[in-house]
Design goal:
Blueprint (H helix, E strand, L loop, with lengths): L3 E2 L3 E3 H7 L18 H10 L7 E3 L2 E4 L3 E4 H4 L16 E2 L9 E8 L3 H15 L5 E6 L6 E6 L7 E3 L1 E2 L12 E5 L2 H4 L5 H15 L11 H4 L14 E2 L16 E2 L8 H11 L1
Parallel strand pairs: 7-8, 7-9, 9-12
Antiparallel strand pairs: 1-14, 2-10, 3-4, 4-5, 6-13, 11-12
InterPro entries: MetalloPept_cat_dom_sf, Peptidase_M10/M27/M57
Protein name: Dual-action HEIGH metallo-peptidase
Keywords: Signal
């Protein structure tokens, strides 16, 4: 099974398998935006790994799909010492509070596949019977806005989407960005794949870290990489396994297809939000 970076970075050779069997074209591989040593130092001080950092408008993307603004990187942060263990479900220090609660999601400026993908992700969460429920709205204010950006391949990878973690006030992260570039989802995006990526990004907005944050090679292959301590915390959720857990919706990498919650994901979400 080919492994691709879930929800944010997957190798162009993986795109060959997913997008109409197209051959990779070096002419489409845009020059990576350089990340300065000062910014890398800020990322390290913030507690995230400085491996495979990608510049984007207004900040950087770390861990494959976590957006950190330049303003965030200039803040002084502190957090608990992380437990580096096996592959398990992990949450951040901040969670969404004020339960029961309806989380309103708005999709702006994106095509029908992204709207249908959002509805797919929402339905999957709502079937769990959590004290968090989700509703897509087309007008008025929303707790999470899903919008597009267009960024081509860079350094052999392409960003599929990004999001962040809950605020200190107990609100979900307010924005999910989905890539509209042709090399991200192709000209006819698969709704279940798009929905799986959105489902993953919503997980971050609710406070979920990557299941394999301490060793991305478990789902991504290649060199073992720890995503870093980070001031946001990485707290193991009771009841989830202390051994590698395949097919979790929060694994850092996927097979580029449909992926939803496995049994341990459901345990984790119900522990936090039921």
């Amino acid at each position: 099974m080919k492994k691709q970076t879930l929800s944010v970075l997957f190798a162009l050779m993986a795109i060959v398998a997913v997008v109409s069997c197209q051959k990779s074209n070096t002419n489409t591989d845009a020059k990576p935006q350089e990340v300065s040593e000062d910014v890398l130092a800020q990322i390290k001080a913030y507690g995230f790994s400085t491996n495979n950092v990608h510049s984007t408008d207004g900040g950087v993307i770390v861990e494959g799909d976590i957006f950190l603004s330049h303003a965030q990187l200039q803040e002084k942060v502190s957090g608990p010492t992380l437990q580096v263990a096996q592959t398990e479900q992990y949450r951040t220090t901040n969670l969404v509070s004020g339960l029961p609660r309806v989380i309103k999601i708005k999709v702006t400026g994106l095509g029908t596949a992204f709207i249908a993908g959002t509805d797919t992700a929402i339905a999957r969460y709502n079937r769990l019977g959590l004290r968090l429920t989700f509703q897509r709205v087309t007008s008025g204010s929303a707790n999470i806005t899903i919008q597009g950006f267009n960024q081509g391949p860079s350094g052999g990878y392409i960003t599929l989407g990004s999001s962040g973690f809950p605020t200190n006030a107990g609100n979900p992260y307010s924005k999910i960005l989905m890539n509209t570039n042709q090399y991200a989802y192709g000209s006819n995006p698969n709704v279940l794949y798009v929905g799986s990526v959105i489902q993953h990004e919503i997980g971050h907005c609710l406070g979920m870290r990557h299941t394999d944050y301490m060793d991305r090679s478990y789902s991504c292959g290649g060199t073992a990489t720890n995503e870093g301590a980070a001031g946001v915390g990485a707290i193991q959720i009771p009841g989830t396994p202390g051994t590698p857990d395949p097919n979790s919706w929060m694994l850092a990498c996927s097979n580029g297809g449909n992926r939803t919650f496995n049994a341990n994901d459901v345990i984790a979400l119900k522990y936090l939000y039921q």
